[in-house]
Amino acid sequence: MSEYTAAVIGTGPEPDNIVWGESAAMAYRHGNGYRTLDRSDLVACCDIVRENAAAFAAEFDIPEENVFEDHEEMLRTVEPDVVSICTPVPTHADLVLSTLETGVPQAVHCEKPMADTWEDSKRMAARADETGIQLTFNHQRRMGAAWQRADDLLADGRIGDLTRIGVGGKNLFDFGSHLIDLANGYNGERGADWVLSQVHYSDEDVRYGTHNENQAVALWEYDNGVHAFAATGKGTGGDATGCLVRLVGTDGTIEVKPDTDGLIRYRSSDTDGWVTESPENDDDKITLALAHVLECLSTGDDPVLSADNALRATEIIFGAWESARKRERIEFPLEYGGNALTEMVESGDLVPE
User: Fold this and answer.
1) Predicted model pTM
2) How far is CA 64 from the centre of its chain?
3) Would you call 306 helix, strand, or coil by DSSP?
4) Closest CA relative to residue 225, chosen from 275, 268, 308, 163
5) How does 132-154 read in b/e, with b if 16+ C-beta sit within 10 Å?
6) Which of 78, 148, 175, 201 has the CA that lies 20 to 30 A from 351?
7) pLDDT tens digit string along 50-89?
8) Please, are residues 104 and 79 in contact by the beta-carbon 8 Å criterion?
């Protein structure tokens, strides 16, 4: 018998017909992770569309009596130890909070981004602290070998002391939450002191229920004097950056997922130009993320995927959109609790087609 029982909320439809931005079959990737790991046993699932839940159950050998349309009924009936929430972003807060309120699971692992407003993001983290239930968000790139190799090089002083971070990706929110979370992690899990940003949004891009800008620039500073810059757009890695993350130190540079060859490259005063590496994980990163969730549940250690870490990245994103709306630098902690990008669309200040 496995150490932990697991359940999934929000199975979604058609795992063989993935439409990025609409339905990415993330529940099936979580399901594969639980099935792969010896210490977990996937025992129940829930979806508001019964046939979606039934198809998921058939794939993962979940008995019919453990297939539900109501997540609270599933929690009360099955009492799983760990719950994955794989629904669209605007539903995250209500589902996480209601799951925490039941007091049933020991851990809740939710898809990212956290929520579609800053206030809801804070509410989830605060309630998890109050209940003592482990709450994590699926920033699974933390588990990737290339990303961890960059962390090791930085910790070993390969490029000296960190001074600047560059981030380049598709957007600040859906894709960018990964990269900003990683940037914070490379800088000792710090949050920002302030952010200054501007956005362009002419072609509607609603991903998993939430607007994402077409292009943005953002600059922020950490309390240790390290500055970070983000450029988003449709190019690979952000055309202005040339990689997904760049770490600049007093004695060199590390690039993760550069537009050139390799998954990571670095150079310093004692290298002959760039050193290129391509470290890869044998296991799927979501499986590795779930393994980390279960390990921290067992040991009591703080997960790197914690709500607190996710919250620091999310504050920078919502602060950047608020900066674009107010046309001024935003100081943290962020007092505005909404979603400035969505509100600019609703007010007609931005009119994406």
Assistant:
1) 0.96
2) 32
3) strand
4) 163
5) ebbbbbbbbbbbbbbbebbbebb
6) 175
7) 999 999 999 999 999 999 999 999 999 999 999 999 999 9
8) yes
